[in-house]
Amino acid sequence: MSYHHLALAAKDMAAIHEFYEGIMGFELVKVEVAPVMGGGWGKHFFYRMDGNDSRFIAFWELNDTPGQDDYAYDLNEAAKTPQGTNHYSFSVDTPEELESWRKKWNAAGLDVLEIDHNWCHSVYTRDPNGNMVEFCLTTGSFTEADRERALAALDEREMKASPPPAKMQQWLAKDA
Fold first, then answer.
1. Among 7, 36, 94, 152, which residue's CB has the most CB atoms within a 10 Å radius?
2. What is the C-alpha separation between 108 and 20, in angstroms, rounded?
3. Rg (CA), the chain
């Protein structure tokens, strides 16, 4: 089972469109315009990923909704959680594809954080809402010991740290 779409509110729909279609390469294929529960109305834009008509990221442009001047569009700001806690991750299949995204984001003027987590390798940037977006390549496999450790962590109430990342590097757009 996979998800059909992730739906988020957009602070600036023009900037969201430029990022998700212009930089990410997702294709805007559909909009639904309708009243919003609680008042006002919205445009719900759907961006197709990888040409797959069952995989989308979607954004709401909200209009005339109560309290809209006070909305927080960054998921972590809204939830009052540390930056990067709430984020969304897209899959890549090769190290070359991961590196290609890093270079593409830097060329588009975006700063990128790269982390080799020892079992997956990721690059991160922020979208126009301030949300962290990730491309991730699984580089390892999972053992029974990994599962046992994960199950044990469910009940732990003190930090038993994982090994540190094999690599962590900030790639600034100005240095690209």
1. 36
2. 12
3. 18
CA dihedral angle for residue 16, residue 48, residue 21, residue 137, rounded to 10 degrees: 90
As a whole number of angstroms, the distance between CA 61 and CA 43 comes to 5
Buried b (16+ CB within 10 A) or exposed e, 56-77: bbbbbbbeebeeeeeeebbbbe
- Which pTM was predicted? 0.93
Question: pLDDT digit string (tens) for 95-139?
Answer: 999 999 999 999 999 999 999 999 999 999 999 999 999 999 999
Cα 30 to Cα 5, 45, 47, 143: the distances in Å are 12, 6, 7, 42
